[in-house]
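okkk here we go again. third time trying to get the adenosine-5'-triphosphate bound version out, last two times i messed up the smiles copy paste (missing a bracket lol). double checked this time i swear
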Amino acid sequence: MPPSATPATRAREEGPATGALLATRQLTWRIGEVAIVDNVEIDLRPGEFLGVIGPNGAGKTSLFNLISGLRPPTTGQVLLGGQDVTALPPHKRARQGLGRTFQSSSVFGSLSVRENVRLAVQAQRGGSFKLWRRAARDTAVAEAADRALDRVGLGHRGEALAGTLAHGEKRKLEIALLLAGEPTVMLLDEPMAGVSAEDVPELVAVIRSLTGDSGRSVLMVEHHMDVILELADRIAVMHHGALLACDTPDTVMANATVQEAYLGEAL
Ligand SMILES: Nc1ncnc2c1ncn2[C@@H]1O[C@H](COP(=O)(O)OP(=O)(O)OP(=O)(O)O)[C@@H](O)[C@H]1O
Ligand SMILES: [Mg+2]
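finally!!
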C-alpha cells in the first residue's frame, strides 16, 4: 500500500481552490488500520468531465460515498463551490447542487418512468403543500420531469413501468432522476454497468451532453476505458485508496506508475 500524504496523492491545482465546483482535501476513510480512501485531493472545474479509474476495490465507490455524504470521512474535507460541506448530510449536499447515481439501480420498478422522475423532482423541490399553490406546483413538477426524460431520450417511455425497462433504458432513467435534482456536479458510478454493447453509444451521447451546457461538471467512475477516453477531459487513477495520477488522458496513459499499478489487471 502506498504511504499516506505522498506528493503523488495531491492531484490539484496549486493556489486557492476558487473556481473548483467540487474539491476534496486530504480526504481519508479508514477502517481500522486500512485506508480505504487515502488522502485524496481532487478539483473538479466548472464544465469539466473527470473520469475516475482504478482496479476493483481501489476505493472509487468509497470516494463517492464520502463526497456525497453517505459516509463521514475519518479526516479531510469536501468542498462544494468553495464551501466546506463535510458536516452536511447527503440531502443538504444535493440541495447545494451535488447529485449522484448509484452503482446498483435505485429505481422504483412498480412505478411508471414518469412517476419515478416526478418523485425525484418533488423530493428536490420540497416546499409548500398549501392547496392553493398545489396545482401550479404540480404542473411545474410535471414539466420539469418531462424535460429530464426528453434530455435522456426517454420522452416516449414515460408511461412504461420502470421495472420493465431494458438495462440501457434503466441507466438513462437513472440519469433523468439525477437531472431532476438540477445538479451542478454529477457523480456517476459505472453508468454503463450491465448495458449491452449496442446500447453503449447512445448512452455515451446522453452522458456527453451532460457537460455540454451551463458549466455542469461530471465525475464518473467507469471500467470501460474506451468510454472514459472518449468522454473525459482528465482522468484520475485510484489504487489502494490513493490517487496515483490526475491528468489529461494522454499523460495518464503514458504514466509509468499507472501502467505498473495495472500490470496484469484489466483496466
Ligand atoms: N463498508 C465497508 N466495510 C468494509 N470494507 C469496505 C466497505 N466498503 C468498502 N470496503 C472495502 O474497501 C475497498 C474499496 O471498495 P470500493 O467499493 O470503494 O472499491 P471500488 O474501487 O469502487 O471497486 P469496484 O471497481 O469493484 O466497484 C474494498 O477492499 C472493499 O472491500
Ligand atoms: Mg465501485
